[in-house]
Amino acid sequence: MYFDSWSGFLSMEGHGLYVWSAYAVAAVVIGYNLIAPFITKRQVVAQVRRQERLIKRKMVVNDFKVTADSGEDLEQRFAPGSTQRKHRAERQEEGPESVERSAQ
Predict the structure, then answer these.
(1) Cα 50–54–55 angle (5° rounding)?
(2) Burial call 7-45: b when 16+ CB within 10 Å, e when fewer
(3) Which value, to the nearest 10 degrees, does the dihedral of the CA atoms of residues 40, 43, 44, 46 take?
(4) What is the pLDDT of residues 1-49, one digit of tens each?
């Protein structure tokens, strides 16, 4: 196709609106297909980080409850060679009912 001027190229003998709108829609779809994976990845990473923070927060709360229930000193709890980890693992295996009974 040969056009005499830029206005003739843009109007495309009366079909310019259809042609340029088709190009615009195609450009938007291609742009979305290029950007969407990055947006999705960022959302997934943020969700995983939130879940990790929640798990850490629950672990801290559970550790605090075990420490408060046992009445032990924090220095003893984190001392090298301490048997606190063993006791904490046993309490977690026992379940909340037996821990409540032992606290009474």
Answers:
(1) 120
(2) eeeeeeeeeeeeeeeeeeeeeeeeeeeeeeeeeeeeeee
(3) 160
(4) 677 888 888 888 888 899 999 999 999 999 999 999 999 999 999 999 9
The residue to which tokens 């190229």 are assigned: 9
Distance CA 42, CA 39 (A): 5
Can you tell me the distance from the alpha carbon of 88 to that of 65, in angstroms, rounded to the nearest whole number? 11
Three-state SS for 5? Answer: coil
pTM tops 0.85, yes or no: no
Residue entry with tokens 């409540």: 100
Dihedral sign, CA of 73, 77, 80, 86? Answer: positive
Report how far apart, in Å, the C-alpha atoms of 70 and of each of 8, 30, 34, 91 are: 86, 61, 56, 11
The residue type of 32 is: Y
